[in-house]
Amino acid sequence: VSFELGAIVSHAFQLARTWMTARGMPEWGALLTTMSVETIIVISLVLFIPVVMVYAERKISAAMQARLGPTETGPWGLFQTIADTVKLLFKEDIIPVGGDPWLHRLAPIVAVAPAFVCFAAIPFGIGLIPVDMDTGVLFIFAVSGVSTIGVLLAGWGSGNKYSMLGGIRGAAQLVSYEIPRVLSVVPALMLYQSLSLRVIAEAQQGRLWGFFPKWLIFYPFGFIGFLLFLICSVAETNRTPFDIPEAESELVAGYHTEFSGFKFALFFLAEYAYIIVSSAMAVALFFGGGDGPTIAGGHSISWIWFQVKMAPIAFLFIWFRWTFPRLRVDRLMQFCWQFLLPLSFVNILATAGWILWRG
Amino acid sequence: MMPPFASILFYLFAAVIIFLAIVSVSARNIFHSAIALTGALSVVACLFALLGADFLAATQLLLYVGGIMIIMLFVIMLSQQRHNAPQTNQQWVWAAALSLTVAGVLIYTFRDSFKDVPPTLAMQPTTARIGQLLLGDMLVPFEAISLVLLAALVGAVVFAQDTLPPSK
After folding, report:
1. Which residues of chain B are within 8 Å of residue A26 when distances are taken between CB atoms?
2. A132, A175, B28, B77: which sits with the fewest CB atoms below 10 Å from its CB?
């Protein structure tokens, strides 16, 4: 008996493929069918993320501000986000007269589609990775960068000066913070000599002196790398204290001012999906992935440990939003280029020095 | 007889690239042109992935779509008004001749290169080999290109300054 979800899922898909080929389906057709089913499962789970995250965000922020948060809809207000979702889906879709209708339609799609694609390369436990590719880390950085185009399209396509300013600010911020974000994970790539999240996570298994986990976070440069990655990830999701592109007090709602209903919901979905992508990447890169104690009989349950580690990191994103004030736009860029970027270079140099010294 | 699935995808991607490339040179709105070019470059990345160049595909997306095209859109947003740009200027004859010459040379050079496209080989990890080449055999050309880029960066900063630094 195995408690590894990855093994169970891959076995089920293998059985399905055998069943289909035995009934005269070509090999590639069976593969395409199972991969489509896999894709649909991943997409459904991603669609469920904002429902959970928005509820968590509202309850946590309420606790931090000595309020109750949603209480009326369902037990403990659990159905509040479902009600909100239904409301958003039924709202009228408005395309501004002065805007560019095609760009306005395209923007939410370009912003949200890469968020789904990113989940393809994330190892949610041993064997539980949709596509095990050799360049997983690079793939996620490359694909998530495309979302920036969605912000620009929204800013230009709305035909509104606030949207336009939000779009320009967003592009400048996202391009800038992308650089230290990529550099912050380089120590992990250097130490474990791979670009695959699965290989990096599995390389961190094992115990020092029999009990201490060998996770990257416990190395000094791993800790600095994690802090850099976390700060830049918050900036990449456009959340406070880095929400300059949508600063309410200056720009109404920034690049998504003119979006209503379903399109607005898509921008929201992208934001929360990227929080989960960043948390999952942080777990795989710095916290040993699905590494953790085994349950009775030595069965490992890596997929549960992965979720258990992911939740506190997602909590950090919410915590930051409700405790830090917003940065001014020039300070924001200064912080990135004059502090985060040099620090990430020093961190890489320190890692290289340690690898040389270790031999 | 059904053609292989990879072939269908290959010709689909190729058709999309050609369509988007035509849109990007024929659209009246310069922002639409830039978006079509972005789409074409993204589909080129898909083509690289299909042909087994995983590292190249990710780099194409990271640099061209996530970097260069964002800067290009940024410049259009800062500098352009919402009007339809003229599509040609007085030098279109020479430009067309030059483009046709380049196209002819490319077609001539690669006339034998596409015998077995898409390749039937399995995906091979390429990243480690590329890294060894860049920091081993190809170190000098690699660093030389870095120097050229550094010179371009410094030049851009000098041009962007409001006033030239005071000379002694």
Report:
1. 2
2. B28
Look up tokens 């290959």; give the residue: B10
Cβ(A150)–Cβ(B42) under 8 Å?
no
B70 vs A100, A175, A193: nearest CB: A175
Q: Which of residues 220-259 of A touch B (CB under 8 A)?
A: none
**Residue type (1 letter), A62:** A
Q: Residue B2: what pLDDT?
A: 53
Residues A270-295 pLDDT 10s: 889 999 999 999 988 888 877 777 77
* 8 A C-beta contact, residue A117 and residue A144: no
* Chain pair A-B, CB pairs under 8 angstroms: 85
Instruction: Name the 3-class secondary structure at A299.
Output: strand
Q: How far apart are the first and last CA of chain B?
A: 79
Chain B interface, mutation test: which of A135, A175, A177, A186, most B Cβ atoms within 10 Å? A135
A28, A149, A168: residue with CB nearest B65: A149
pLDDT tens-digit series, residues A113-168? 998 888 888 888 777 788 778 888 888 998 888 888 888 888 888 878 888 888 88
Q: Give the per-residue pLDDT at A301.
A: 77
pLDDT in tens, A17-35: 888 888 877 777 788 888 8
Out of B42, B58, B70, name the one closest to residue A135 (CB). Answer: B58
Helix (H, G, I), strand (E, B) or coil at A247: coil
